[in-house]
Design brief:
The protein has 432 residues and is an alpha/beta fold. The protein folds into two domains: 109 residues, Urease, subunit C, domain 1; 313 residues, Metal-dependent hydrolases (TIM Barrel, Alpha-Beta Barrel), CATH 3.20.20.140. It contains 14 helices and 17 strands. The strands form three sheets. Strands 6, 7, 8, 9, 10, 11, 12, 13 and 14 form a nine-stranded parallel sheet that branches. A four-stranded mixed sheet has the order 3-2-1-4. Strands 5-15-16-17 form a four-stranded antiparallel sheet, with no helix packed on it. The longest helix has 17 residues. The chain is globular, with a radius of gyration of 21 Å. The protein starts with a strand and ends with a strand.
Length: 432
């Protein structure tokens, strides 16, 4: 048994902060077995002054092979960015040594930023994606990992696509089997059509059958940009959401990245299926030219969490994305065109606050994946980070008059990796 004692902050429900002060959490085999007011013993990990535990963060959308181009070429439209920069970069993961190096750096960096769970798109290469899954397990990061599927010769470059529909399906099945054979339970497989434009109808149909047969998670892009959204409408005569559902790819374990242009009918369909949305506020600013109606989705009780969208988003930090989720929601509510009167400038009732942002980064993301993390409750896994608010090289300045709201606001808006003293998954320390 392992024990942790001190102050714990989490969001048991959206919009609600809870402080567990002078609390002891006992953990057995990575699972929170008991929460009590018992005093610490000599073996407890304890919080010092100006320190508290937060749940580990859940990043719902990461393109692992894009890590080397973080922050590059974001002035380009999405389709140009893919063809000119991203596809050539991802193709380099055919070199397993190269993939090993960048994936090792990425997993360690995300853990350093407090991301204890990540949902990864790999490349089209089975061996490299298996290596990504293995590295997540080795470094102790909870992860959902998928081999990207893109088989349509008319929509993908000749140097970077699955050789055939059968080859893409076989590679996906191989990845699923490999991940499920890894020791431990930290890493799960995902069926990963890149997005509808990259896949043939036959591929999408077969992936839907594979989803039903395996019960694996599904991850894909959905209505990401004007170009992508319109492409699907023109090709299939229906929205991404409807098409994914018709192909059998919209399930309780589906993660839809972006979803910027979903309408009311799409929201109802996603909600009815229990699927979730990876809200990527930083990358949306570059490739969507719109603001996702986050508050509207949350008010419909949809499953929503945050994603960095490395490298479409230029930051590996979910703290940064939580901040931008707040600011973009304010922009949507108040509007951005100064030539319009204030009353006509925005969409009312669109804003979220720091409590919602913390929930999205932790419990909200966990709900999307249907994983027992993100909250300090008995029965959940102990995934956590220790926040030190007094580090002079961090971004927080604690004051004696700070109440809980002030402390958490300062953390959400100001925390840097220097403020993260340690990170645990399944109660095992991961920063060395």
């Amino acid at each position: 048994m392992q024990s942790f004692h001190g102050s714990f902050v989490h969001t048991p429900r959206r919009g609600e902060l809870e402080l567990l002060r002078d609390t002891r959490i006992d953990v057995t085999d990575g699972c929170i077995a008991r929460i009590s007011a018992d005093p610490p013993d000599a073996s407890c990990v304890t919080t010092g002054d100006n320190e508290y535990f937060l749940p580990g963060f859940v990043d719902l959308h990461v393109h692992a092979p894009q890590w080397p181009q973080l922050g590059n070429a974001l002035h380009l439209p999405l389709e140009d960015w893919l063809w000119q920069c991203t596809f050539p970069l991802e193709a380099r993961c055919a070199d397993l040594d190269y993939a090993h190096a960048i994936y090792t750096a990425l997993v360690r960096t995300l853990l350093r930023h407090g991301t204890t769970t990540a949902v990864y798109f790999g490349s089209i290469h089975v061996a490299a994606t298996c290596e990504l899954a293995r590295l997540c397990a080795e470094h102790g990061q909870r992860a959902v990992v998928g081999k990207v599927v893109m088989d349509d010769p008319a929509a993908n470059p000749g140097y970077y696509r699955d050789e055939s529909t059968d080859a893409g399906l076989a590679g996906t099945q191989q990845l699923i089997e490999y991940v499920r054979d890894l020791p431990g339970e930290l890493v799960l497989p995902a069926i990963t059509p890149r997005f509808i434009p990259s896949c043939s109808d036959s591929m999408l149909q077969e992936l839907g059958k594979l989803t039903a047969a395996t019960g694996a998670h599904v991850q894909t892009h959905c209505s990401e940009s004007d170009w992508e959204h319109s492409y699907v409408l023109d090709r299939l005569g229906k929205t991404d959401t409807t098409a994914l559902d018709d192909f059998g790819l919209l399930t309780r374990r589906s993660v839809l990245a972006h979803a910027n242009f979903i309408g009311a009918d799409d929201m109802r369909r996603i909600g009815n299926r229990g699927a979730g949305i990876a809200h990527c506020p930083l990358s949306n600013a570059y490739f969507a030219d719109s603001v996702f109606p986050l508050r509207a989705a949350l008010d419909k009780s949809m499953h929503v969490g945050l994603g960095t969208d490395i490298s479409g988003g230029p930051s590996a930090s979910l703290f940064d994305n939580a901040r931008h989720a707040i600011s973009s929601s304010r922009i949507l509510e108040h509007g951005a065109d100064p030539s319009l009167p204030a009353a006509r400038r925005g969409r009312k009732h669109s804003r979220i606050d720091f409590r919602d942002a913390l929930w999205l980064a932790s419990a909200g993301g966990a709900e999307v994946l249907d994983l027992p993390v993100g909250r300090f409750v008995e029965g959940n896994r102990f995934d956590a980070m220790l926040i030190d608010t007094a580090r002079i090289d961090g971004g927080i300045y604690p004051d004696t008059g700070d109440d809980l709201d002030a402390l958490v606001q300062k953390t959400i808006y100001g925390a840097t990796p220097n403020n993260i003293r340690q990170v645990w998954t399944d109660a095992v320390a991961r920063l060395h």
